UniProtKB/TrEMBL annotation:
Protein name from the UniProt record: PHP domain-containing protein
NCBIfam families, A to Z: PRK07945.1 (NF005928)
InterPro entries referenced in this protein's UniProt entry, alphabetically: DNA_pol_lamdba_lyase_dom_sf (IPR027421), HHH_MUS81 (IPR010996), PHP_dom (IPR004013), PHP_phosphatase (IPR050243), Pol/His_phosphatase_N (IPR003141), Pol/histidinol_Pase-like (IPR016195), PolX_PHP (IPR047967)
UniProt domain Polymerase/histidinol phosphatase N-terminal: residue ranges: 98-178
SMART domains linked to this entry: POLIIIAc
Gene Ontology MF term list: phosphoric ester hydrolase activity; zinc ion binding
Organism: Agromyces sp. G08B096
Length: 337
């Protein structure tokens, strides 16, 4: 048992069960603190008590490190494994090659781009899109055009290095503004591989207004995916929220017409769209994108939940863009621009 791996696995499992984010951060911080130490140095610091004084190592993480360094599975980790499970993918979930919706610490995610890429790779993905929020979502530290341009430079460098072992696609989760326009400049949207368009405000608007808003966004040639279309919350620490009302037949017909995929958001507190709307989108001929909406590395483990819903709905795998290889995916995302 490797101490750093034990700490990282605990953080991942905590994220997967939607525990308080500060818990997972504490374990990732401890893992980073011991990263520079060789096994011998770590053992020496445990033996002479210096490890307790190392910045980033607390009482619980110290106990985990000591157990793992001795070659034992820490009880804390064993309990989480039994409670949360291993997250192995099977069925349709095993066919997923990528994820078009994830966030880093650049907006409201909890970790670095590199950590998010590692989390996606750990569940077997071949490619992942980084889609931090757009500027109007200030509560989520949305990216201005200038910050997004800086992020693109970093993504290009990371992808060129090839050290991450997974393809990084530059993207955005862009707000659909009240008039249906997209919350980023057309120039910046044109530089991205992936644009997920989502409504985050005025979710209780009347159905005609919400329908018109979504129809304009879907018709925008930059839009690739309609994200969590109802905005509902059915459980979790943020409470519940009813789904937005809109003309699903018209919106999904527009998605099919404009070659926009309907997202099946895999987060357990969303399960968005509901099953009845998935059926309407399927009948309309839509493509689908099974996404994690990950805000931490462990959240990629949610993909199996979205895949299970797609299987129950009878969606053919070939109509799910996140089962495609990256070349086919990029040909699709760019062909309207």
């Amino acid at each position: 048992m490797d101490a750093r791996s034990a700490l990282e696995e605990i953080a991942t499992l905590l994220e997967r069960e939607l525990a308080n984010p500060y818990k997972a951060r504490a374990f990732r911080k401890a893992a980073a603190a011991i990263e520079p130490l060789s096994d011998d140095e770590l053992a020496a610091r445990i033996a002479d008590g210096r490890l307790r004084k190392l910045a980033g190592v607390g009482e619980t993480t110290y106990e985990v490190i000591v157990e793992a360094a001795a070659g034992r599975v820490p009880p804390y980790l064993a309990d989480l494994r039994e409670k949360v499970g291993g997250g192995a993918r099977s069925g349709l979930a095993a066919e997923l090659k990528g994820d078009l919706h994830s966030h880093s610490e650049w907006s409201d995610g909890t970790t670095s781009i590199q950590a998010m890429a590692a989390g996606a790779k750990a569940v077997g993905l071949e490619w992942v899109a980084l889609t931090d929020h757009s500027p109007s979502l200030r509560v989520a530290n949305g990216l201005s055009a200038e910050r997004l341009a800086s992020q693109l430079d970093i993504l290009a460098a990371l992808d060129a290095d090839g050290d991450l072992g997974i393809r990084l696609l530059p993207g955005i989760e862009v707000d659909i503004l009240e008039d249906g326009s997209l919350d980023q400049t057309p120039d910046m949207l044109g530089r991205l591989d992936v644009v997920v368009a989502s409504v985050h405000s005025k979710l209780r608007s009347a159905a005609p207004a919400m329908t018109a808003r979504m129809l304009r966004a879907v018709a925008d040639p930059h839009t690739n995916v309609l994200g969590h279309c109802t905005g509902r919350l059915i459980r979790g620490s943020r409470g519940t929220r009813p789904q937005s009302e809109f003309d699903a037949e018209r919106v999904f017909a527009a998605c099919a017409e404009h070659d926009v995929a309907v997202e099946i958001n895999s987060r357990p507190e969303r399960e968005d769209p509901p099953d009845d709307l998935i059926a309407i989108a399927l009948e309309a001929g839509c493509l689908f994108s099974i996404d994690s909406d990950a805000h931490a590395p462990g959240h990629y483990g949610f993909l199996g939940l979205g895949a299970a819903r797609a299987e129950r709905a009878g969606i053919p795998p070939e109509r799910i863009v996140t089962t495609w290889d990256v070349d086919r995916l990029l040909e699709w995302t760019h062909r309207k621009r």
